C-alpha cells in the first residue's frame, strides 16, 4: 500500500519534472513527416506568460488545470521555463523549472523548434515545435518522438496570452488549420483556466 503510494507519487513527481513535455500520448503509427515548424521564429517575441488552453492528455498530468507557462531569458540567451499547474480535485500545485534553447540556432532561417529539458537534464532533444504563433495571442505547439518503428509519442498544446482564447477569425482559422491537419481531436483535453480556484502563479 505504502509502496504503491510512493511509486505513484514518484511517477507523478517525474512527470512534473518533465513538466509540459510529458503531456503526450502514444499513437500506433510512425511520426508523421512533412510537418513544418514556424519559420523566422523569434524567441524574444515568444517570451512572457502563456496560458494552456488545450493539450493532449497524459495520465501523469491528469486532473491538472490552470496551467501557466512563463518564459524568461537567461543570461546565456537560453530560456528559463517555469510551468505551473493546479489540481482542482485536491488543491495541489505543481511547478517545474526548465531550460529551453533553439534546436538549430545556426540555421539561416530560424525555425520554431526548441529543446526543452527540466531540472538540469541536457537539452538534447528537439521536443517543442511551434507550428504557428502570432506571439501576441496564440501558439500551437506540437512534437512527435518515435517509439520504435510502429509507434510514436506526440505532444500537443494550444497556448494563449490570456486565460480565454480570443475568438477573432484570423486566430481561429490559424489554429483550426493546424488542428484539422495534424491533431487527433478526440485526444485533446481543454484546460480549465476560468475556475475561481485557479491560483495566480
Ligand atoms: C493530488 O493529486 C495528485 C495527482 O492526482 C497527486 O500527485 C497529489 O499528491 C495530490 N495532492 C494532495 C495534496 O493530495
Ligand atoms: C537539439 O536536439 C537535437 C536532437 O533532437 C540536436 O540535434 C540539436 O543539436 C540540439 N540543439 C542544441 C542547441 O543542443
Report on the structure:
Residues 1-23 form the signal peptide. InterPro entries: Calycin (IPR012674), Invtbrt_color (IPR003057), Lipocalin_ApoD (IPR022271), Lipocln_cytosolic_FA-bd_dom (IPR000566). It comes from Anopheles minimus. The chain is an alpha+beta fold. It has a single domain, classed as Calycin beta-barrel core domain (Lipocalin), CATH 2.40.128. It contains 3 helices and 10 strands; from the N terminus they run αβαββββββββαβ. It has helices spanning 2-18, 43-46, 169-182, and strands at 24-27, 48-56, 64-73, 79-87, 93-102, 113-118, 128-133, 138-147, 151-160, 188-190. It has an 8-stranded antiparallel barrel with strand order 2-3-4-5-6-7-8-9. The longest helix is centred in the N-terminal third of the chain and has 17 residues, at 2-18. The chain is globular, with a radius of gyration of 16 Å. The chain starts with a helix and ends in an 11-residue tail after the last strand. Residues 1-21 have low confidence and may be disordered. The protein binds 2-acetamido-2-deoxy-beta-D-glucopyranose (NAG) (2 copies). One 2-acetamido-2-deoxy-beta-D-glucopyranose (NAG) is lined by residues 12, 63, 87, 90, 92.
Total helical elements: 3
User: What small molecules does the structure contain?
Assistant: 2-acetamido-2-deoxy-beta-D-glucopyranose
Number of strands: 10
By oligomeric state, this entry counts as single chain
CATH class: Mainly Beta
What's the CATH superfamily, by name?
Calycin beta-barrel core domain
Beta-strand residue percentage: 35-45%
- The CATH architecture can be given as Beta Barrel
Rg over CA atoms:
16 Å
Biggest sheet overview: 8 strands, antiparallel, barrel
Amino acid at each position: 500500500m505504502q509502496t504503491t503510494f510512493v511509486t505513484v507519487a514518484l511517477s507523478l513527481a517525474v512527470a512534473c519534472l518533465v513538466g509540459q513535455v510529458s503531456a503526450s500520448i502514444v499513437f500506433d503509427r510512425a511520426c508523421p513527416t512533412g510537418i513544418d515548424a514556424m519559420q523566422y521564429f523569434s524567441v524574444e517575441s515568444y517570451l512572457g506568460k502563456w496560458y494552456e488552453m488545450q493539450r493532449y492528455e497524459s495520465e501523469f498530468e491528469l486532473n491538472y488545470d490552470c496551467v501557466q507557462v512563463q518564459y524568461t531569458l537567461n543570461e546565456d540567451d537560453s530560456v528559463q521555463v517555469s510551468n505551473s499547474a493546479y489540481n482542482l480535485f485536491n488543491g495541489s500545485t505543481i511547478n517545474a523549472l526548465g531550460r529551453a534553447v533553439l534546436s538549430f540556432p545556426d540555421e539561416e532561417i530560424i525555425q520554431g523548434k526548441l529543446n526543452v529539458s527540466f531540472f538540469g537534464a541536457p537539452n538534447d532533444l528537439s521536443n517543442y515545435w511551434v507550428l504557428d504563433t502570432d506571439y501576441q495571442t496564440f501558439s500551437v505547439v506540437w512534437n512527435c518522438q518515435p517509439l520504435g518503428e510502429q509507434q510514436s509519442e506526440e505532444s500537443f498544446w494550444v497556448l494563449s496570452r490570456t486565460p480565454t482564447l480570443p475568438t477573432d477569425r484570423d486566430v481561429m482559422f490559424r489554429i483550426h488549420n493546424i488542428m484539422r491537419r495534424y491533431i487527433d481531436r478526440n485526444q485533446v483535453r481543454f484546460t480549465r483556466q476560468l475556475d475561481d480556484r485557479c491560483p495566480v502563479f
